[in-house]
Design brief:
Length: 297
């Protein structure tokens, strides 16, 4: 089935943005369908936040164009269906989360589902306290609730869990997966690879303002088919060179595109390995591997 650009939550082509001498974003293309979550990855300064700002209508691109459900970013029609986490400094500090959320819901023209937001974002003890004096993690919970208060069909989350404790991070993952499973579209930037992998079906890796790797995570995995072998050896024994294994301080680790052949050869050569594990490569290592190879899925 071919989706038209107005069916897509995001359709962006050739986005570019320069700040003085810095080409923050150059030629970014993105498509995101409802019911999909996209993880934007990249080092500090790669251009992720600038890309989000253009998709939210907060920055005007120098070149290229984007549509949000077929509407220009920042237009009333696009904003109606879009949620995003505000920066903590944007929250007035003399009001309570209940007041902020109720006001924001009113702006979206939806009933404030305060009880659901309290449950989803752990706001029980906070909901009627003034936000002045909230910790970073407590502010972040309010900001996340604000992203979802308007019953959006698309949410932009820029490093949503920074400052959250691990229980709140886990709860956020469950909530985000539920949102996407019910047809929501989500764009997430994060430096937590496991968070991206837990929530997102697709990734776009941005480097110096350009997309250097993009696609569905399962397709990227299937294409690379890299497996990590972990094993122990008796002290003073090292694996054969052909395996390319390295010791990580605890165990020997080797990456292979053909684990069957590698294992047969280890057995044939009577390598006395123990506690063998076979695991798919973590997303971070997979991307590193693909980029080193210069592969473009
Ligand atoms: N308002 C601005 N004025 C000048 N330069 C800017 C501005 N905003 C961003 N930049 C520059 O554009 C580049 C991309 O920044 P951006 O914030 O998009 O990166 P990022 O991938 O979100 O980084 P991080 O992971 O650190 O949040 C950086 O070199 C940054 O210094």
């Amino acid at each position: 089935m071919t989706l038209h650009s107005s069916d897509l939550a995001i359709h962006a082509r050739g986005l570019a943005k320069r700040f003085g001498a810095v080409q923050a974003v150059a030629r970014i293309d993105l498509d995101l369908a409802p019911g999909e979550a996209l993880g934007l990855l990249g080092t500090n300064g790669a251009g992720k936040s600038t890309t989000l700002a253009m998709l939210m209508g907060l920055r005007v691109p120098d070149a290229g164009q984007a549509l949000v459900f077929g509407h220009p970013p920042g237009s009333p029609a696009a904003r109606r269906w879009t949620g995003a986490t505000p920066q903590a400094r944007d929250l007035p500090d003399q009001v309570t989360p209940r007041e902020i959320l109720s006001y924001a819901a009113q702006r979206y023209g939806v009933p404030p589902a305060i009880d659901r937001l309290i449950a989803d974002f752990g706001l029980g003890d906070l909901i009627d306290r003034r936000v002045a004096g909230f910790s970073g993690g407590q502010m972040r919970r309010v900001a996340l609730a604000l992203a979802f208060v308007g019953q959006p069909r698309l949410v932009f989350l820029d490093e949503p869990t920074s400052g959250l404790d691990s229980a709140a991070q886990d709860a956020f993952r469950v909530m985000a997966r539920g949102y996407v499973a019910q047809g929501g579209a989500l764009v997430l930037t994060s430096h937590h690879w496991d968070e991206i992998e837990a929530i997102c079906s697709s990734i776009a890796v941005i480097d110096r303002g350009e997309t250097v790797l993009a696609g569905r995570i399962d397709a990227i995995r299937a294409r690379a088919r890299i497996t990590r072998l972990g094993f122990d050896l008796p002290p003073d024994l090292v694996p054969p060179l052909w395996l390319g294994a390295r010791h990580d301080g605890a165990r020997w680790q080797a990456e292979t595109a053909d684990s069957d052949t590698a294992l047969r050869r280890m057995v044939a050569e009577a390598l006395p390995f123990a506690n063998l594990t076979l695991q798919p490569l973590e997303l971070k290592d997979l991307i590193h591997h693909l980029r080193q190879e210069g592969t473009r899925p």
